[in-house]
Amino acid sequence: MDVMGDKATLLETGRFVQPADREDPGAAAEELRHRLAAEAGDVDAMSVLGSLLLRRGDLDGAESMLRAATAEGDRAAANNLGVLLHQRGYADEAAGWWRVAAVAGSAAAAHALGRHHRERGDEPAAEYWLRQSAEQGHALGAYALADLLEHRGDAGAERWMRASAERGHREAAYRIARALDRRSAAERAEPAESAESAQDEGVRSAAAEAEQWYRQAAARGHRRAALHLGAILEQRGELKEAGRWYLNSAKDGEARAACALGFLLRDAGDTESAAVWWLKAAQDGDGNAANALGALHAERGETQTAERWYRAAMDAGDVNGAYNLGLLCAEQGRTAQADQWYRRAAYAGHREAANALAVLLLQGGDAAGAEPWFSKAAEAGSVDAAFNLGILYASRDDEGAALPWYERAAAAGHTEAALQVGTARLREGDEQDAERHLRCAAGGGSAEAAYRLGTVLDARRPPAGPPALGEPAAEKTECEEWYERAAEQGHRRAQVRVGMLAAGRGDVVEAARWYRLAAEAGSRNGAFNLGLLLAREGSEPEAALWWTRAADAGHGRAALRLALLYARRGQLVEGQRWASRAVDLGPAEVSERAARLREALQQELTA
Fold first, then answer.
1. Which residue in 102, 68, 97 sits closest to 80, CA to CA?
2. pTM, whole model, 2 decimals?
């Protein structure tokens, strides 16, 4: 009989079994039954009783039973005697009994003997016995053999790792999942040699298999597998199940899972529960959780507590702690301290800290000192730093040096950088590339890009004639849609342009609305056009008010309109004053007309 020896040994569990606080009556009765049978000379009973006593921690009582059963040739007893002697520190004698049991066919003893030889550096012997164990279907033997072969770089390691995982070994399942993850990541990073769809299918297949192994390991209580499974599910949007696996992992002591669970709860609006898990993770040394706690307290205005947690993050080796301390000091106006923390994070390779340090130096007037930090951050991949470097070069009128950095930031999705590249392409006459960049910037929310894109598209439109009587109004063109998007964001020139297009369609109400919005925001063209619209509708007094606002802002045509208006009313002096103002404001055509009007009014006044 080898049940107790082959299927349940202390060596396999990796821990000593402590005596129970309360004795199970059923177990006590079973032990008594085996004891009576052992005393009557039953070898199987001796073996089983010895195993029970060993599991309970009664090594003296177990040893006598196991030696007696071993003397009668019981291989399970020989295996468990080896376990007992190993616990007592007699490793060589334990190996001798494991050899006896392994030769007799005990897979558990072969596994134990293989591990014994590996600990002593005898890899050939270790491989021999571990292979004997693995080939008999022993999960731990297969795992130990796979670990040995993997250490040597042997391709056969995967086969045995899978065999172990398929027999329920959770660490083997986790390691297979990690290997598949690394493989799929490498395939994503490498350029496809075959069809792209085939490569994508391979990546998806590896990812799906990895998830299955993570799930198997996590279901058996592997806390890191539960963490990775939670991350996969969270990325896929299955937040409820992700939270369940994070919770399982966090309860088992995985600090990263506790931190991830905190972020999940925060995103769900439960900040208090999030703080509880972040605290647990931070106390276990997770720097990311400490940073999250710092940010939470900073949002509440508890700056001293925030600073304490940022320092804790830094002490845990998380460079973000120093960066966040820099941000906190900068917000408080403690520039010298901010400089200190930014530098500490930047020297550690934190690219956003390098960018923040450069901004701080630039704000202090040290453009020469800022430039190398912008360069360092941009070269490390900071999109904001690349854009800021472009701005720095542009401020020196070095557009040639600025443009490549704008292009780099634009390629990474930076809205304002895309606008700058689009504008540069328009100046160069490359309308097609300009349109592409302006679309990116406009799609990212830039009102100026939406307006400029509208002008590009507008210039391509054939001139529209007046609508025929009874003909329905034409639908809005794409350029008008972009103008409207910019106008809705408060872009004054776009508002004027939308008003003009609406007026061209005969929609006076819509045109007046946009002109008024632009005028009230300070657009002199909006005020002038609103005045024209009101004058045509017979509201000259109100039109004069908007023309006055436009003329005061430097609009020559508005001043000329006022001069004409006052001349018609017979207010010659006022008309002459506005005519002189129009002459000064221009443009040339307006100045000429205004000069003639001024002379005519002067003649009238002196007649």
1. 97
2. 0.74
